[in-house]
Amino acid sequence: MSDSSVIAIDAMGGDKGLEVMLAGVARARRLHDGLRFLLVGDEAAIRAGLSRHPNLSQASEVIHAADVIAGEEKPSQALRRSKTSSMGVAIDCVKQGRAGAAVSSGNTGALMAMAKLSLRTMPGIDRPALAALLPTLGDNDVVMLDLGANTECDARNLTQFAVMGAAYARIVLELDRPRVALLNIGSEDQKGTGEIKDAAQMLRAATHLPMDFTGFVEGDRLSRGDHDVIVTDGFSGNIALKTAEGTARFVADLLRRAFSSSARSKIGFLISRPATDLLRNHLDPNNHNGAVFLGLNGLVLKSHGSANEIGVATAIGNAAKMVKSDLARRIAEDLSNIDAKAAA
Amino acid sequence: MSDSSVIAIDAMGGDKGLEVMLAGVARARRLHDGLRFLLVGDEAAIRAGLSRHPNLSQASEVIHAADVIAGEEKPSQALRRSKTSSMGVAIDCVKQGRAGAAVSSGNTGALMAMAKLSLRTMPGIDRPALAALLPTLGDNDVVMLDLGANTECDARNLTQFAVMGAAYARIVLELDRPRVALLNIGSEDQKGTGEIKDAAQMLRAATHLPMDFTGFVEGDRLSRGDHDVIVTDGFSGNIALKTAEGTARFVADLLRRAFSSSARSKIGFLISRPATDLLRNHLDPNNHNGAVFLGLNGLVLKSHGSANEIGVATAIGNAAKMVKSDLARRIAEDLSNIDAKAAA
């Protein structure tokens, strides 16, 4: 695949450090021909690391940034170093038009705050939301948002997330009218918080939007494939996403124990290994890495803090796809069309 | 196992109707020798159903109740029929001392409202919470609460849930100082809602309680076995529980697909079947059915609305164990000891 996009990389963010970030970028470089990178962070450390990736060196420019935002730092603190930190400078590359997207494995709250301050939200959007594609049993992945950017949300926020999520699904899943549901603790009308009930009322009334509101969905049906977009506040979204990740790992661990419990099951495992390897591959969060902040005037992707080399490469691949499909501009267009229709 | 407990059964609640409830009770009767039942609901229908379970008839008394609480009914509506509904009459059997516990597969909100009105909360407890034991990779199950009884909770509610959950863990898991954590979207101090941060502060200060507060836990670590009690509001708890159930089913479905993807993997599956059957059995929610309302002066258990015969029997088995261990009285005792210590 040839791809002329430029991606800005926060080379210093993430739990696993510079080495894994660079290995991930080098992997993405091998997978996506023509992609170019702005590697932002401690210049000397990056140049030293690059000596192990000659192929990446040729496709990269190093941009020095002296500061690193720590994982436990408060967003308000981090904001003071927007101009000097690897995270802030990477986002600024998007603002200046030097890169089509920025990717960071760093502190989510800080990334959100900096991206919002630097790129600003699209007209009509109060807050950006963190969205990702999750695997389902159906033909398509499902878009889920917010995954942790906004701890508490009101009905207006949730409704805007629905509109942005639907626009995203129309582009990445190529659907005319995505089926949009609100995450709740029951499917009956009277279930849930006041915010969710109000959002449901607003979405039910919004029949002019290019999407179908399908009501409430419970946690046990997220991956059934009967919805295209699942909308929730950042607290519940984060709990659901992480619980799903943890449960998948839990089941995989139990499966490993079960397969090693007897000679017979070990033999069965060896024989069916190609099938179980495929499954493991399908469930590995590194193969679904890269959540995007929707609603900003520019593309910023959050890679999982504990992502390995494969995960970092997946996030960069997703960023390249979004740049190529001109995602931010198309979502903005979609939102303004909706506003125009609503006014008419 | 000989067990002289009497369990009141809401025979009409649940998505699957009277037939599955009776089959479940009959199964519990076979598994637990000496258990006796008060079967509450439409007398004619129950007697007709009992003709298929002669063994159960001998151990049961039928109590007529004309009304059934529907699944989508509001708790406030349901409360008006506390005296005439199968759910309300089953709870009243506990209040009157005729049964040691009541089990219902019906509407959770209605069950909670009726149980609270009839049995009242223990001294010092504002609201009951729905608690269940979930499987982990560790030596013990983990107690999780609230699983959906209280949609929104303040710091005081969360702190009381922690104390009740710890008392429950001390009894059912036989631990001296259970490790108690709050479910949150990060492990750092500044993460989460104001309610969670305040609850953490209160629990950190409560060093006189017979438990160890271990801070925040994220959704991906629920089943790692490094906590004994996980405390959350009913909204997040319900989302986490159902997401875990749904993900376990999702992985099992993918595994089935993987195993049937080729002749080779089918053979491997047949060979390792005893191991995968054990795993399926371990993950089947019917084998973990029966959540209890903690904090009431009496035992009321919620069986999953979609529980099958095995699930209903599991919930009844759990109820019998709780009656036998005198759970409600021992939690009350634990709470009053804590109060006495705090006052001293």
Concise account of the structure shown:
By secondary structure, chain A is of the alpha/beta class. Chain A contains 13 helices and eleven strands. Chain A folds into two domains: 1-122 and 295-325, 3-Layer(aba) Sandwich (Isopropylmalate Dehydrogenase); 126-287, Isopropylmalate Dehydrogenase (3-Layer(aba) Sandwich), CATH 3.40.718.
Strand order of the largest sheet of chain A: 3-2-1-4-11-10-5-6-9-7-8
The radius of gyration computed from the alpha-carbon positions of chain A, rounded to a whole number of angstroms, is: 21 Å
Q: CATH superfamily of the largest domain in chain A, please? A: Isopropylmalate Dehydrogenase
Distance between the termini of chain A: 43 Å
Number of domains of chain A: 2
Instruction: Give helix and strand order of chain A, one letter per element, not per position.
Output: EHEHHEHHEHEEHEHEEHHHEEHH
- Mean pLDDT level of chain A: 91
**Structural class label of chain A:** alpha/beta
Largest sheet report of chain A: 11 strands, mixed
The tally of beta strands of chain A, per DSSP, is 11
Most extensive interface between two protein chains, with residue counts: A-B, 63 and 62 residues
Residue runs with pLDDT of under 50 for 5 or more positions of chain A: none
Distinct helical segment count of chain A: 13
Architecture per CATH nomenclature, i.e. the level-2 architecture of the largest domain in chain A: 3-Layer(aba) Sandwich
State which percent range the strand residues of chain A make up: 15-25%
CATH topology of the largest domain in chain A: Isopropylmalate Dehydrogenase
Percentage of helical residues of chain A?
40-55%
Class of the largest domain in chain A, according to the CATH hierarchy? Alpha Beta
Assembly of the depicted chains: homodimer
Give the overall shape of chain A.
globular
